[in-house]
Amino acid sequence: MRIKFTTYILSMLLISGISCAKNHIMLLNIDQKDKLLLVSTLLSFNSSEQIKEAIDNGTRITVIAKAQLYEPRSWWFDRTLDNKKVFLEISYFTLSKLYVVKNKITGEQLGFNDYEQLWKEFEKLATFTFDLPSDSNLWIKVRLVLDKGALPTVMQLPVLIDSNWDIDTPWHEKELNLK
What we know:
179 residues, six-stranded antiparallel sheet, 4 helices, 9 strands, alpha+beta
């Protein structure tokens, strides 16, 4: 009986981890400025009613935007040149009725009166800056994930199982054409 229960729990965790995310990165914008490479995203991003309810009730949600600059290799693992992370915290202030997205590293923040507008403008803070590499065969990949470990402890286990909290995007890759 105990083995069946353990097998059931593990299979549920695997199924919830395999489920396809409805959010995705549609486009990566890449600009060169002096000796810097600037990467910004265009997102197709939505959240569930459960996430909206949690934010409206005062739970701060953290989304991690990850970017990786790498050189692909067909015969071995890709050679990673640089990794960047942006931690974006979403919160709601009840007195001002304002949704705020804050970059936890730079302190930059945007405020919105409308919840849907928050997700439309969310991509403005998910930007990355890399030193301009000298290699020619380079790719960049970007994704967004919910930081489940930043949630209150009582929410962490249910969030792993509930597909309504699956806002992670798959990796979006693009080849760099540096001039």
